[in-house]
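Moderator note: this is an archived Q&A kept for reference. The question asked for a predicted structure of one protein chain; the sequence and the answer are reproduced below.
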Amino acid sequence: MKIVAMVGSMSKDSNNKKIVKFMQERYSDKLEIEILPIGQLPMYNQDIELNPPEIVVDLREKIKISDGILFATPEYNHSIPAVLKNAIDWFSRVEPVMIGKPSMIVGATLGNLGTVRAQTHLRQILNSGLVNTLNLPANEVFISSVGEKLNENGDLVHQPTIEHLDKVVKNFIDWVEKLK
């Protein structure tokens, strides 16, 4: 199953990117997860949306041929990062390639709430008209205090979090298969 991932942090040491890389490795026998370079997208501009830069065209195509989308978001000021919103704006205009795509959300933060507010906001955005992804219901992945759950190499080692992620990924795969 081919999944594209949008990671809402551009930091080279992004905890959310570490979680997605963990997922790439752990579930490689079930999922092919490609992290899209959304940090390379220019800011969305309606003036150029009919003749978008090549990266927009390329990433749209990757979304179009994927079986689903994984969103990994930190929480910035109780919401999603601008880079993630910008990507969603590009992929929901002119050629809205996310409509009807199965999606799931994970989020990791150093704080106690595990990106609850950002994910709530992201779900609201994903349900809007020209985005309209089919978001996996009742399978939230809120990774709080992530610094305590990663080892010195940045690998996820917290067994209860890994077990929960295993369960949610299995539910996501089963759900996507039923939607086909």
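Archived answer notes: The CA atoms of residues 103 and 151 lie 28 Å apart.
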